[in-house]
Design brief:
The structure holds 2 protein chains of 2 kinds.
Chain A lengths: L1 E4 H17 L3 H13 L3 H20 L9 E9 L2 E4 L3 H15 L23 E7 L4 E8 L1 H4 L3 E5 L4 H16 L7 E8 L2 H13 L9 H15 L14 E9 L6 E8 L4 E6 L1
Parallel strand pairs in A: 1-3, 2-4, 7-8
Antiparallel strand pairs in A: 2-5, 5-10, 6-9, 7-9
Chain B lengths: L2 E5 L4 H6 L5 E10 L2 H12 L12 E3 L27 H6 L4 E4 L5 H10 L2 E4 L5 H4 L3 E8 L8 E15 L6 H9 L16
Parallel strand pairs in B: 1-2, 2-3, 3-4, 4-5
Antiparallel strand pairs in B: 2-7, 5-7, 6-7
Classes of the chains: A alpha/beta, B alpha/beta.
The complex binds iron/sulfur cluster.
C-alpha cells in the first residue's frame, strides 16, 4: 500500500490546467506542422500559420492560447495498491481546478445549473473520470476542453445492419456538420460499441491518445486511416474556409456490445487540443 | 478577393463594398457580446430601454476574453461560435448593427437578415485568442458587468483581421471555399446557401 495525499493531487491538477492552456503539447505541435506540409489551399496555409504563431505567443508570454480555457476534464488511473489520504479526493480535484484557473487567469466558464446558468466563478465542477488499474502509481491526465468543439459532438444508436459503412457515414456527416464551428483542423475521437454511456466515454478517451498514434489492432488502425481520408475529402479545411486538412487525426476506441446494438459516438476536438499528464 | 480597411462606425456604402471572401481589417471601436449579453439586449429593446451602445453602424464581436495579466489590455480574445447568437442577430441588424464577427455557420434567417438590413458576417481565426488580442488597444466593460467574461466591453482595435463569410449580396464564402476543395467522391458535399427571393 502506497499512500498519496490528496493535496498532491490538487497541486498537480492546479499546475496541469495552466500548463495545458499555455503550452501546446508536442504531439499536437507535430500534427499541426504536418498539416502545414499537407495543406494546399492558400487561405488554409494562412490560418495554419496564425494557429502556429498563436501557440508560440501563448507559450512565450504564458497566456492562454484560446480564450475558451475549457471545462477541466480530470482522468485518474489509480493503482489498486494506492491509498489516498488527507480528505475527499473529488473535493481536492475541484480545489485544484479552482486554484489553477484563478492563478493562471484562465476564463471561468462553468455554470451552477444548465437552466439557471449562474457562473460558479472558479470553473468548477471538473469532470472527473476514475479507472482502477494494477500497481501503486496514480496517473493524472488533464484535458481542458473548449465548448465550441464539444457542442458539435454526436452519439447514435445504430442498428447492427448499418455495419461499418453506416458508422462511417454517421461519423463523416458529424464532422461535416461541425465544419468551421469546431475550429478545424480537428481531432476526431470515435467510440464504437459498449452501451449508450460507455460509447461516449470511449470517444472521449480516444482523444487522450497521443495525436496520430494508431490503434494497436491493425484492423482498427486501418479504419482510422480510412476515416481520416474520407474526412479530408470534405474540403472543409482549416477554419472551414476550404482546404484539404479538415482533421489532424482520427482515434477510435472499441468495446464489445449487445446483439441488438451498434452504438457510435463522435467526440470532436479542436486544433487547440490541450492535454497534459503526470504520474505520482 | 480584396483586402479592405474599414473604420467604425460602418456606413451602408462600406457594407456594400465588402464581398464574401474579402479580408476585412477593422479599426476603431467595436463591442463584445455573447449569447447571455444578446439575450439581455433583446430583452432591453423589447422593454423599450436603449442599448448599452449606439447600434447605428456598430460592429459586434462574439468574444468572452480571459482576464488580463497585469500590464495587459485584455487576455486572450478569439471568436466564439456564432450560431448561438442566430436567434438574436436579426434584431440587432434591424437596429443598425452592420458587422458581426464570430466563427462558424449562420442560419438562413441570419443570412436573409444581412441582406434585408444591410450587414455582413465576418470571421476571425478561432483558437487564435493570444494573437488576436494584440490588435486590441483598449478594453472597457460598459454593461452587464455581472456576466463576467460575457459582459459587454468596448474595444478599441487596430486592423483587426477578419474574413467576410456572408455579405449583403448573398455571397457565402464557406460554401465557395469548401466547394473549391471538396473531392468529387466525398461522402458529404458543402451545403449551398438558400437563395433568397
Ligand atoms: S473550439 Fe477550441 S479553439 Fe475554437 S474557440 Fe473553442 S476552445 Fe478555442
Amino acid at each position: 500500500m502506497r499512500e498519496i495525499h490528496v493535496d498532491q493531487v490538487a497541486d498537480a491538477v492546479a499546475r496541469l490546467v495552466q500548463e495545458a492552456n499555455f503550452k501546446l503539447s508536442d504531439d499536437v505541435v507535430r500534427a499541426l506542422s504536418q498539416a502545414q506540409s499537407l495543406e494546399e489551399a492558400p487561405v488554409g496555409q494562412t490560418v495554419l500559420m496564425q494557429i502556429v504563431e498563436n501557440y508560440t505567443i501563448a507559450e512565450t508570454e504564458q497566456v492562454p492560447m484560446c480564450q475558451d480555457t475549457g471545462v477541466a476534464l480530470v482522468f485518474l488511473e489509480i493503482g489498486q495498491d494506492v491509498h489516498l489520504v488527507g480528505g475527499d479526493l473529488y473535493e481536492a480535484i475541484n480545489r485544484g481546478v479552482a486554484r489553477g484557473y484563478t492563478e493562471g487567469r484562465l476564463r471561468m466558464s462553468m455554470l451552477n445549473d444548465p437552466i439557471q446558468r449562474v457562473n460558479t466563478r472558479d470553473n468548477t465542477p471538473a469532470m472527473i473520470y476514475v479507472d482502477i488499474v494494477p500497481g501503486d502509481r496514480l496517473k493524472i491526465k488533464v484535458d481542458t476542453k473548449g465548448g465550441g468543439s464539444e457542442n458539435m459532438s454526436q452519439l447514435k444508436m445504430l442498428p447492427p445492419s448499418a455495419g461499418w459503412e453506416g458508422a462511417k457515414q454517421f461519423i463523416v456527416e458529424t464532422v461535416a456538420a461541425a465544419g468551421p464551428n469546431a475550429c478545424p483542423p480537428l481531432l476526431v475521437g470515435v467510440g464504437i460499441g459498449g452501451n449508450f454511456d460507455k460509447c461516449a466515454l470511449l470517444a472521449k478517451k480516444a482523444l487522450l491518445r497521443e495525436v496520430g498514434s494508431p490503434h494497436p489492432d491493425p484492423e482498427w488502425a486501418a479504419r482510422e486511416q480510412e476515416l481520416l481520408e474520407e474526412i479530408n475529402k470534405l474540403g472543409v479545411g482549416p477554419m472551414g474556409l476550404g482546404g484539404v486538412v479538415t482533421a489532424l487525426a482520427v482515434h477510435i476506441e472499441v468495446m464489445g456490445c449487445h446483439i441488438t446494438a451498434l452504438p457510435v459516438a463522435v467526440n470532436i476536438e479542436c486544433h487547440s487540443h490541450r492535454h497534459k499528464e503526470v504520474t505520482l | 478577393m480584396a483586402r479592405i480597411h474599414v473604420t467604425t462606425p460602418i456606413t451602408p456604402e462600406q457594407v456594400r463594398q465588402i464581398r464574401a471572401g474579402d479580408e476585412v481589417l477593422i479599426t476603431g471601436e467595436i463591442y463584445t457580446a455573447r449569447d447571455a449579453a444578446h439575450k439581455r439586449m433583446v430583452e432591453d429593446l423589447a422593454a423599450g430601454r436603449p442599448l448599452p451602445f449606439d447600434p447605428e453602424g456598430a460592429v459586434i464581436y462574439y468574444v468572452g476574453p480571459t482576464p488580463p495579466k497585469p500590464g495587459q489590455v485584455i487576455g486572450s480574445a478569439g471568436p466564439t461560435t456564432s450560431y448561438r447568437m442566430d436567434k438574436y442577430t436579426p434584431t440587432m441588424l434591424r437596429h443598425g448593427v452592420r458587422l458581426v464577427i464570430g466563427k462558424g455557420y449562420r442560419s438562413d434567417e441570419v443570412k436573409a437578415a444581412l441582406q434585408e438590413y444591410g450587414g455582413a458576417y465576418l470571421v476571425a481565426t478561432g483558437g487564435a485568442g493570444a494573437l488576436l488580442a494584440r490588435r486590441i488597444e483598449e478594453a472597457e466593460v460598459i454593461a452587464y458587468e455581472d456576466l463576467g467574461a460575457e459582459a459587454i466591453r468596448r474595444l478599441r482595435v487596430r486592423e483587426f483581421p477578419t474574413i467576410c463569410i456572408n455579405d449583403v449580396h448573398g455571397g457565402d464564402q464557406y460554401f465557395a471555399g469548401q466547394s473549391q476543395w471538396v473531392k468529387p467522391d466525398a461522402m458529404v458535399k458543402p451545403k449551398p446557401p438558400v437563395a433568397s427571393e
